[in-house]
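# nightly structure sweep
# worker-07 picked up a monomer target from the shared queue
# config: single-sequence mode, recycle default, output format = structure tokens
# input follows
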Amino acid sequence: MDPRDEKQPAAAASSDPLWRRKVVAEQRVAAALAAIQEAQGLISYAAQALSSVNGLCPAYLRVGRLYDRVHRTWYAVRDKAGVVKRRGKLTLDHDPDSYESGRMGREG
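# output follows
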């Protein structure tokens, strides 16, 4: 059995450091994409709030451009992570520890 195969039994997989680094890397990408998407939603809310305020059209337009940049960034991160994952190189550059994993997962 290939220790890098993500479909291997959980007991064997959890003891393989490379497999763990891949799993945590995927979790980090998912967390980053979720955070970017959340930021996009907040920026959209800000743009909507400014859209009807007299005299703030320039600010509204700036917020709209920011929204577009964040939107493009989400796709860029998703696409790049997909390419790296298909190459089998989506891993952490170090072994995750429990503090780091919990913090990145937005727990506690």
